[in-house]
Amino acid sequence: MRPPTHRRSHRRHGFTLIELLVVLVILGLVSAFAAPRVLDYLSGAKRDTAQIQIERLSEVLDLYKLEVGQYPSSDHGLEALIEKPAGVSGWNGPYLKKGREMLVDPWGNPYQYRQPGEHGAFDLFSHGADGEPGGQGENADVTNWSGDGASS
Asked: Are the beta carbons of 120 and 144 closer than 8 angstroms?
């Protein structure tokens, strides 16, 4: 008697070209729908970061005023939180541990500072992603005041 022979399958194991194309099409469709959502979340995160940084800088400006007796002038700007301005007494800084990187918004533009402010003792704001006043969504202004459509 002959021992049983094992039949070898000549069929190869793996994916066909059609199967690979179907998977690629599915991945393309998923990424087409998911990418805009991810970008929306990213832009929202940058706006939230800018708002938190503005609130933090506002608190630091209040500390500066407490020690110096007044907010930095527009001429001195936010740099007064890092380096002592000429002719200022009572300065006990630097007031920012991270230095100048705190003076730049998440889009890489410097925060705008105005003292006296049009909306309060001082105005502190970012013009958003486009760097231009106004705008919507990621391009909207982020401010330390409320009203007129801007973030509070």
From this structure: yes
